[in-house]
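Example complex used in Figure S2.
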Amino acid sequence: MLNRITDTLNFQTQALTLRAERQRLLASNIANADTPGYQARDINFAKALREATGEIGTPGALQTTQRGHLAPLAGARGESGKDYALQSQTNLDSNGVDMDRERASFADNSVKYEATLRFINGSVRTALDAMKSHNQS
Amino acid sequence: MSMFQIFNVSGSAVSAQSQRLNVVASNLANADTVAGPDGQAYKARQVVFQTQLMGAGNDGGNAGVRVTNVTEDQTPGRRVLDPRHPQADADGYVTYSNVNPVEEMVNMISASRSYQNNIEVMSTAKSLLLKTLQLGQS
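Predicted assembly (275 residues):
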C-alpha cells in the first residue's frame, strides 16, 4: 500500500527534476537573447519524462548485457534530449531566440512546476493521513 | 539542484546588459564632443556578447553571457564648418564624434528590456525555489 503511494511520488519527483531542467534551459535562452549566433534550445517534455521513467529507451543509452556492466543512473539524460528551436524569423546576427515564445514557455513551465509541487504535497499528505491512527482526530 | 544555476545564468546576462547600458551612456555623453588635442574625436563603442558555458559538469544546458570585447566604430566623425571654433583645423572644419544618438537610444531601450526580462526570470526562479523549500509542510 505504502509502496503504491511512494511510486506516484517517484514519478512526480522525476517530473519535477525535468521541469527544473527545462526552466534552466529557458533561462539560458532568455539570457542569450542578444548573443550573436546563439541557437535556442528546448526539451520535449513528454518524451523526456517517458525516457526518465524508463517507459521508452533513451537513445544512445548504455546497454547492460553482462552482469558486471554499470547501469546508467535513473533519470540520466544525455545531450540527445535537447532540441534546437526553429527560428520563426530570420535574424541578421543568426540569433535563434524568439523572445515571445521563450517567455510563454517560461511562464507555462513555472505554472506546471508549481502544479507538480502541489501534486507532491498532496501525495505526502495522503501518505501521512493513511499512517494516522483512527482514534486521533 | 539545477534550478540554482538560473541565478548564475541570469546574473551573467544582467551584468552583460548593464555593461552595454554603460557603453550606451558614455556614447550619449560624448555625442557632441569635438576632436581632442590629438586630432582624434571620440569613437562610438559597442559591446560584443558571447555565450559562456557555466558550472562544473556542464551538460550544455546553462549558457550564460559575457562581454568579450568592446569595439570602436571606425566611421569618420561628423565635420562641421566653423572657422571661429578653437578646435577648427586649417580648413576651418571641426570634427565631432561619430556617435549616432538615435542608434544609441534604440540600443538603450533594447538593453533595458533584456535587463528587465532577466530580472523577471530570476524572481520567478526565486519564488519557485522558495515553494520547493516548503515541500511537505503545511
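The interface with chain A takes residues 1-3, 5-6, 9-10, 12-13, 17, 20, 48-51, 59-65, 110-111, 114, 117-118, 121, 124-125, 128, 131-132, 135-136, 138 of chain B (CB under 8 Å). The first strand of chain B starts at residue 45 and ends at 53.
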